[in-house]
């Protein structure tokens, strides 16, 4: 692509630049106003960076059709990548920031090739330049403090991106948090708006919403967002290994879980201290200041509040539903299962309630996929209410699930990836429905599920991720779930030598019965050469790269799914803020990072018990098989 792409007019650039922080504040953490706007208009920024910004920002140009915007965005992204690849060993932080804009562009469209290139090149850049060790002593004396702060903010923007992928897919982060030596961002307001006209800032200093007198907070926000990611990544890494063989014994796993849950709750308390409940109105802000930088200044703390609270609730839900995974080597604790179900429903409902708040307060043109991505795990959990909706106590949660889907559909009108998410949620519902229909044949076993139920209708295993994420395996979705087979769920410690009957080994439901068409028409997706030890024949192609990103996960599976369904600037001391780096802070979250490498011989074999004996299960299955003949 040798042609020079046209840059929008100055007025359009200004509008676009002011919209970007409202749509996705993370990518704008390094931005300063009005410098950001002026440097694009005057072509002061490198061309590749301007094109990268436009690959995301062109979506918000008002004088273009949707089709025209899509073509422009794709061309801008390709041009930016073309220029960057022609550079020899680039080291400017603008390169990494450009990659993040390009990746953000792919969030709403199915452009896998661009997402792959930008993701790989960003990782290579970060490793080659070691931007993640920016504040090592040998680096500090070489640059001005302003340049250092800018580079720090670019790094943390990239860190947020790779952390999102880790949380979403449970893939190991490309850069370990313990290697990071970068100061956290400080003085957010001064950095972003320090050059804005003084009279504008003074006119807003005492602003309160006319509707409910909500005070606007101009203190730091970015640090708490980053710390939320840091804790989330640690928790996800633990949950991903919790139910794997040879990783933890039962007591140690429970100890780790309790400690991480305690840390998550403590972190949530810090969030509550800084931010108010999401029960205030922002409608006046958007109505009175739309298109004005005043809107950005006034809405920033509210938008940060929403995103940080959603991220925190999201990780709590990951933890609670981890207690619903059925492991054949662990005794079922009925009280823990019931408690986990109630906690999961409550947390998913909080995610949904916050989503409804955002939907009611943020105009649709600003309401995008990036604002709802942390609710997908809640929507997936709430699919379990479809078969419980006739219970008065559960009906509310089912209606909450329907509300989420309606909001998703509205966003789907402008996001291809959102439509793929909707399809995936329907897919999970179908999986649950199919398993229910198969399980009801085992009448006696169904009744034995009552100790684990929270409703008269709750007599089947729940759909929950086995490896923390529903998207750990992108090629074969069934491997992501805890068992839905009621006989397997109720089975005691797995023991092949004692599990035979006159008819042969205990026969549980076939995967192809629960997961319709799961082995048909696979869309290859790759996995960084990671395979499930229980599934050595899984069709993961090691030659393809799997980012585990939101867009990639749904790009690679859309065809298959559619086929199947036609405060002050000081941080609270408890958060452990440091002037050194996250590497110090993160130690508060590392209970024991090397425990994951435990040797098999260190894990004690314990006798496991079950509420149902093997004989009872065998008799029920044999009886059911004879009934069908």
Low-confidence spans: pLDDT under 50, at least 5 residues? 209-213, 494-581, 591-609
Provide a count of the helices. 26
Biggest sheet overview: 2 strands, antiparallel
Provide the gyration radius in Å: 25 Å
What coarse outline follows from CA principal-axis ratios? globular
| Mean pLDDT across every amino acid position | 78
H/E series, N to C?
A: HHHHHHHHHHHHHHHHHHHHHEEHHHHH
Strand content: under 5%
N/C terminus separation: 67 Å
Biased composition (Basic and acidic residues): 508-523
Region (Disordered): 497-538
Protein name: Transcription factor domain-containing protein
Describe the 3D structure.
This protein is mainly α. The chain has two domains: about 1-130, no CATH class; about 130-565 and about 570-615, no CATH class. About 55% of the residues lie in helices and about 0% in strands. The chain has 26 helices and two strands. It has helices at about 10-25, 35-40, 45-55, 65-85, 95-105, 110-130, 135-140, 145-170, 190-195, 200-205, 220-240, 250-275, 285-290, 295-320, 335-360, 370, 375-380, 390-410, 415-440, 445, 485-490, 510-515, 550-555, 560-565, 580-585, 615-629; strands at about 500, 505. A two-stranded antiparallel sheet has the order 1-2. A hairpin with a 2-residue loop joins strand 1 and strand 2 (about 505). The protein is globular, with a radius of gyration of 25 Å. The model is unreliable at about 210-215, about 495-580 and about 590-610 (pLDDT under 50).
């Amino acid at each position: 692509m040798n042609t020079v792409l046209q840059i929008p007019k100055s007025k359009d650039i200004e509008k676009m630049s002011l919209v970007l922080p409202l749509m996705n504040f993370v990518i704008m953490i390094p931005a300063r106003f009005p410098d950001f706007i002026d440097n694009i208009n005057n072509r002061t920024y490198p061309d590749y960076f301007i094109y990268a910004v436009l690959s995301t920002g062109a979506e918000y140009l008002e004088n273009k059709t949707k089709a025209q915007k899509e073509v422009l965005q794709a061309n801008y992204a390709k041009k930016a990548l073309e220029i960057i690849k022609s550079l020899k060993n680039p080291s400017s932080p603008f390169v990494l920031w450009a990659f993040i804009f390009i990746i953000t562009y792919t969030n709403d469209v199915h452009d896998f090739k661009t997402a792959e290139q930008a993701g790989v090149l960003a990782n290579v850049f970060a490793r080659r330049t070691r931007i993640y060790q920016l504040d090592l002593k040998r680096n500090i004396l070489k640059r001005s403090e302003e340049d250092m702060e800018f580079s720090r903010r670019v790094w943390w923007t990239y860190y947020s991106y790779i952390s999102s992928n880790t949380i979403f897919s449970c893939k190991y982060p490309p850069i370990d948090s313990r290697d990071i030596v970068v100061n956290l961002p400080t003085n957010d307001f001064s950095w972003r708006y320090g050059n804005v006209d003084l009279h504008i800032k003074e006119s807003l200093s005492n602003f309160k919403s006319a509707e409910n007198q909500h005070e606007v907070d101009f203190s730091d926000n970015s640090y708490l967002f980053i710390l939320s990611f840091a804790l989330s990544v640690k928790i996800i890494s633990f949950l991903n290994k919790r139910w794997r063989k040879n990783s933890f014994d039962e007591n140690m796993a429970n100890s780790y879980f309790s400690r991480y849950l305690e840390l998550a709750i403590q972190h949530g308390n810090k969030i509550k201290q800084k931010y108010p409940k999401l029960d205030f109105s922002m409608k006046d802000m958007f109505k009175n200041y739309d298109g004005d930088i005043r809107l950005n200044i006034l809405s920033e703390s509210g938008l940060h509040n929403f995103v940080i609270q959603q991220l925190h609730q999201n990780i709590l839900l990951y933890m609670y539903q981890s207690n619903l995974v059925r492991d054949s080597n662990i005794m079922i604790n009925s009280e823990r299962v019931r408690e986990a179900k109630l906690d999961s429903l409550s947390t998913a409902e909080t995610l949904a309630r916050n989503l409804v708040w955002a939907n009611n307060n943020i105009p649709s043109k600003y309401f995008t996929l990036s604002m709802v991505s942390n609710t997908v795990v809640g929507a997936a959990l709430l699919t379990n209410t479809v078969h419980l909706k006739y219970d008065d106590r559960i009906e509310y949660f089912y209606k909450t699930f329907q509300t989420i889907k309606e909001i998703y559909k509205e966003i789907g009108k402008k996001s291809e990836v959102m439509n793929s998410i909707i399809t995936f949620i329907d897919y999970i519902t179908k999986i649950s429905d199919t398993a229910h229909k198969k399980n009801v044949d085992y009448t006696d076993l169904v009744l034995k599920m009552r100790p684990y139920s929270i409703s008269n209708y709750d007599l089947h295993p729940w759909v929950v991720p086995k490896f923390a994420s529903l998207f750990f395996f992108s090629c074969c979705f069934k491997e992501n779930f805890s068992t839905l087979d009621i006989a397997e769920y109720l089975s005691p410690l797995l023991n092949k030598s004692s599990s035979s009957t006159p008819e042969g080994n205990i026969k549980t439901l076939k995967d192809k019965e629960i997961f319709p068409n799961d082995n048909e028409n696979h869309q290859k997706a790759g996995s960084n050469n990671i395979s499930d030890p229980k599934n050595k024949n899984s069709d993961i192609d090691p030659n393809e790269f799997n980012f585990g990103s939101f867009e990639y996960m749904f790009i690679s599976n859309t065809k298959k799914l559619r086929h199947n369904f036609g405060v002050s600037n000081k941080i609270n001391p408890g958060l452990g803020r440091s002037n050194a780096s996250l590497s110090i802070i993160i130690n508060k979250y590392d209970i024991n990072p090397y425990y994951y490498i435990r040797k098999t011989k260190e894990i004690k074999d314990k006798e496991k018990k079950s509420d149902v004996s093997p004989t009872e299960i065998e008799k029920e299955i044999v009886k059911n098989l004879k009934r069908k003949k």
